[in-house]
Structure formats: C-alpha cells, structure tokens
Write a structure and sequence with these properties.
The protein has about 150 residues and is mainly α. The protein is about 65% helix and about 0% strand. Helix 4 (about 100-115) runs antiparallel to helix 5 and helix 4 packs parallel to helix 6. Mean pLDDT is about 80; it is low at about 50-60.
Length: about 150
Amino acid sequence: MNKRVNLTLNNQRFFALLLLLSLAGCVSTARNTDDRIIDTRITVPEQEIQTLPKPDNPAFVNNAAINHLLAKATKLSEQLRYDSAIQELERGLSIAPNNPFLWQKIAEVRLQQGRYAQAEQLANKSNALGRGDSELLEKNGQIIEAAKKARELQ
C-alpha cells in the first residue's frame, strides 16, 4: 500500500512536470507585425499653454505637491505650530531640494522661532537658488534684515 502511494505521488509529479513542459512549448512571444508609426502628438492652442514661473531657473520646481506643502506650512506657522510647519517643508525638500521658495519659507519659520542666525543662512541659500526672481530676493532681504536686527537686540 505504501509503495503504491509513493508510485502514485511520483506519477502525479511526473505528469505535472510533463504538463508544464508541454505548456511552456506552447507559449510564444508576441511580435509587432505592423511597422507603421502612429503620431500621438497633441496640438494645443498657444493661448491654452500655461507658462510656469521662472522657466530660466532650472532649480525651481513648480508642482501641486510643493504648492500644497507650502500652503500647509504657512497655515501651521500661522497657528504657531512651527515644528510641524518645518516637517512639511522638509517633506517638500525631499521632492525638490533646490526649490528656493521652500528654503525661503523655512527661513521665515526659523525667524518666527527666534533662530535668527539660521534664518539668515537659509534666506541666503534661497537667494542662491532663486537668482533672477526679484520678489524672492526682496523677501529674503527682509528676512535677513529682520534676523540681523533681532540678533543685535539680544
């Protein structure tokens, strides 16, 4: 009886292997027999093209995730939840480490926290990344000036 069970089990394994090998022989790779090239380009009227700000600055990344994180960080800092705001901004830096607006916002939050030297350094980094954006440079200048004045008063 035991010998018959082993024989049956071996037969089942043999037939399973045979089935797999025969099925593998039936498989064929799909080939594209149509050599035509299909044009998938889309023509968009020039009026509908949205121009991203500062296209001359390759470090600037404008996307929905970054904009959302900046807005969330602004709201958190207004609620005096500075550490949470910094966490959101650091998440943004993991996506776009050279985005000058993220660095500027971190500088702004550090200024609000009373970390003046760090705020000045971060604003300078934002300036280096955001060359050519006069509004960004002006706001960073205000952060730097405020940080310097606050340090003098300490």
